[in-house]
Amino acid sequence: MNRNFLFAWYETPRGKLLKQLEADYIQRSITVSCQQTILQVGGLGWENEFIDCSLYKHFIILDAKNRGCEEALKIQAKASYLPLKSDSVDMIILPHLLEFDAFRFQTIREVERVLKPEGIILVLNFNPWSFWIRYQYLWDKKMADSWGGHFISRSRITDWLKLLNFEISVCSQFYLDSVVSTSGKNNLRKHLFSGTAYAVKAIKRRYNLIPLTPIKSRNPSLVLAGSINSPAHKKKHD
Fold it and tell me: How many domains is the chain partitioned into structurally?
């Protein structure tokens, strides 16, 4: 995994704008209580811009190189093998991780495993159709050499999540000065090439199958019509 392209992009003028937009967006997207567990896979170093670690005591950053703000709890481990129990995390944030992860399919499965039912996942990626991202990637040799990743479209991310029984709740696209969000997988194709990055927020659903037990057939007992109120029955009781 090599995320040098990401950190170098954040130092550019457009990257600084994106960084601020993403910080505000993540802060608004954290809807779980401060008593619940939030896991961020992939450290950024400026997490204190979107979360108060003194309030969220169970905010954890997992990073292979131990990146992340000093105030947060940290776990140094690989994203494809999360050292956490199944169904133990309430929210997981993946900030520009999957596009640099050679084992991203395994990482997605691990995220689904440790996330609680009805838990929230938030994925942020670069927009693969962005003119500015492509231009920076091709023009700057140093950043291009440090790329070591793959552009992933928003539609592909949503398809992966749906295969793992996630329900897409919000899709967002980041422009230079604004964020446009829609519910579910509604159209965000307007000005697709000008968007720098996108975000997908989804909820883990767990559907339990209810087994249908066969009903045992019973032989109904025959009752003669009018036998209870027949005159012979009345005389017998009299």
Answer: 1
